[in-house]
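SAMPLE LOG
Freezer: B-3
Tube label: C17
Construct: single chain, 181 aa
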Amino acid sequence: MNFDQFKNIRWSTFQRYLTPGAMDDANAFLEKLPQNTSKTLLIVTGVIWSCAAALGLFTTVKMQEFAEKTMESEGQQALLPVVPSIRDVAIQGGEVPALVEEMKEIYKGLQIQGNASSITITANSTGVFGQFREAIGHVQNGGEGWRVSIDKLCVGKECGKYPLGAILKINKVSVENVTTR
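STRUCTURE (predicted):
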C-alpha cells in the first residue's frame, strides 16, 4: 500500500465501529446469537475455540521450556574453558638448510643432510658418538618454536652401513585459540 492509497481511505466508515454504542451493539449481537443460530453451530464453534485455546496453551508451555533449556545450555557453554589448539606447521624458508650448513662446519666427523622438514645425521664409526649426541641436541635447539621428533635413531652394529644414524623431523608449533561459543 503506497501513500496515495492510504490518503484515499474513508475514515468516516471506521468511526461507526469506534462509537460508545458500538460495544453495546456487539454485546446485543452476542446475546441474541443463541436464538438466531442452531445449537449445533454453537457447539462446533465452542469446540473450535477450545482447540485453539488448548493449542495456544500448549505452544506457550513448550516455548517456555525451550527458552529455559536454551538459557541453561548457554550457561553451560559459558562455563566451558577456551582450550587452545596445538598444530604442527611446516618450517618456512631456508631455516633448515641454513642450520645444516652451520652444523657441517661444527661437526666434521658426521655426515649431515637436510631438506625443508627433516635432517639426517649419520656417522661411519661409533667413535664420534659424542659429536652425534651433541648434533642431535643442536637440532633440538635449532630454531624458535621448533618441534623436533625422532623418526629413526640407530646406534650400533645392527644399523647396517652407518653405525650411527638419526632422522629428525622438524615442524613449528602453532598455538591457536579455538572458541567454543
